[in-house]
C-alpha cells in the first residue's frame, strides 16, 4: 500500500515540473479527473488512458469544442507517442499548453493541429480541408467550395511571408504575432474563454 501511494506522489511531482503551468494541487486534481474519466464504461482503453471517443466527449463537455475533425487533430497532438491513447502524462502536459500555454506554446500547438500530414507545412489543401470542415455550408450558396477557396487565398496572402504557396512554422508564427486573432485561423482548437 505504501508503494501505491508513493508512485502517484512521484508522478505528481514529475508532472508539476513537466507541465509547468500547473502547481502540484492542480496536477493532483487533473490526475483524479483523468482516473474518473478513464473509468467510464464507454472507454475501451481504461487500463492505459483515453481512447478517441472519451477524449472527444471530454473536449466537448468541458471545453466547448464541437468540430469532430479538429477534435481528432487535438487528440493526435496530445497523443505524443502515437499509440492511439492519451496517457495521464500526455493529458496533464497537453492541458498545460491547452489551458495556460504561453503564446509561443499555443502557436506551436495550433500549428501541429493544422499540419495534417506532419510535414512541417500547412498546405493550401490542408487549409481547404480544415475550413471546409469547420465552416457551415449554407444551402443558399451554389458552390460553398468557391468561398472556401477564396478564404484560403486570403489566408495565404496574409500569412505566407516567403510566398511559397504554403505556411511554414515561421510564416504562421510571424502572422500570429502580428495579429493574435489568426492563432485559430483554420478552426477552433483551443478552449473557449469560459
TrEMBL record:
Q: Which CDD domains match?
A: EFh
Pfam families named among the record's database cross-references: EF-hand_7 (PF13499)
* A GO MF term: calcium ion binding
Q: Which PROSITE patterns match?
A: EF_HAND_1, EF_HAND_2
Q: Which gene encodes it?
A: Efcab1
The name of this protein is EFCB1 protein
UniProtKB keywords: Calcium, Metal-binding, Repeat
SMART domains xref list: EFh
Which species expresses this protein natively? Halcyon senegalensis
Q: Which residues form a coiled coil?
A: none
Domain EF-hand residue range list: 66-101, 102-137, 147-182
Amino acid at each position: 500500500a505504501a508503494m501505491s501511494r508513493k508512485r502517484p506522489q512521484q508522478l505528481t511531482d514529475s508532472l508539476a515540473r513537466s507541465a509547468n503551468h500547473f502547481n502540484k494541487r492542480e496536477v493532483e486534481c487533473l490526475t483524479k479527473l483523468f482516473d474518473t474519466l478513464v473509468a467510464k464504461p464507454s472507454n475501451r482503453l481504461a487500463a492505459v488512458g483515453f481512447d478517441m471517443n472519451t477524449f472527444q466527449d471530454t473536449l466537448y463537455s468541458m471545453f466547448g469544442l464541437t468540430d469532430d475533425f479538429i477534435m481528432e487533430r487535438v487528440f493526435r497532438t496530445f497523443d505524443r507517442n502515437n499509440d492511439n491513447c492519451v496517457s495521464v502524462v500526455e493529458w496533464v502536459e497537453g492541458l498545460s499548453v491547452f489551458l495556460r500555454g504561453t503564446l509561443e506554446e499555443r502557436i506551436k500547438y495550433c500549428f501541429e493541429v493544422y499540419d495534417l500530414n506532419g510535414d512541417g507545412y500547412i498546405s493550401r489543401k490542408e487549409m481547404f480541408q480544415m475550413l471546409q470542415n469547420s465552416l457551415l455550408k449554407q444551402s443558399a450558396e451554389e458552390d460553398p467550395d468557391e468561398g472556401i477557396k477564396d478564404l484560403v487565398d486570403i489566408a495565404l496572402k496574409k500569412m505566407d511571408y516567403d510566398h511559397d504557396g504554403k505556411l511554414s512554422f515561421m510564416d504562421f508564427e510571424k502572422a500570429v504575432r502580428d495579429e493574435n486573432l489568426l492563432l485559430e485561423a483554420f478552426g477552433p482548437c483551443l478552449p473557449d474563454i469560459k
